[in-house]
Amino acid sequence: MSMAMTETTWEASDEILALAARDGDREAFSTLVERYREIVYAYAVARLQSREEAEDAAQEAFLRAYQALPRYRPGGPWAGYLMRLTRNLCHDLLRRRRVRRNTTATTDWPSLEASPEGAVLDQLDRGRLLAAVHRLPERLRVPVLMHYGAERTYKEIALALGVAETTVVGRLAGALRLLRRRLAHGEQ
Q: Could you give the domains of the chain?
């Protein structure tokens, strides 16, 4: 069975696409990759702080998800499984290289002026701001980098982290409070 790539294919649920991909439909799997490529990559960049490693982790996550398709059972959230794979891969990479918390970021930081908090943060010296962001605990740093750096929505971040949207909102608010306090006291 092959689903011809149509608008209907794009609108198909993850479950339908995963089942079609399990049955050998490569275009169905390509649709899943296209649907989740950006969020997987954004999470990996925020977590690993390296574009090259993030690209490798994203490719590996999709490869493993593809290889696991024969074991896919309907009713299971495919996106949640993919993000769990991505989180585990990133965790393994970090554990292997034993990253220090205060590594220098390699991610771009686009203009933050779209939000009121962003306008204030955008006026600060970017180097000082990035240093402060990268000293945040990981549970706060990753949502900040995904939301302000990769422009991901609360819903996308929640999916990537495997938490509720309200948790993402709370972590972002906590991160901004901590950043304001640290930067006001001259800390980085």
A: 7-97 (1.10.1740.10), 116-184 (1.10.10.10)
In terms of Cβ atoms closer than 10 Å to its own Cβ (0-12, 13-18, 19+), residue 116 is: exposed
**pLDDT 10s digits, 13-63:** 999 999 999 999 999 999 999 999 999 999 999 999 899 999 999 999 999
Q: Considering just the CA atoms, what is the radius of gyration of the chain in Å? A: 18
C-alpha–C-alpha distance, residues 96 and 94, integer Å:
5
Can you tell me the distance from the alpha carbon of 19 to that of 33, in angstroms, rounded to the nearest whole number?
A: 14
- For tokens 């955008």, name the residue: 122
From the number of C-beta atoms within 10 Å of its C-beta (0-12, 13-18, 19+), residue 164 rates as exposed
In 3D space, the residue among 54, 68, 57, 87 whose CA is nearest the CA of residue 21 turns out to be 68
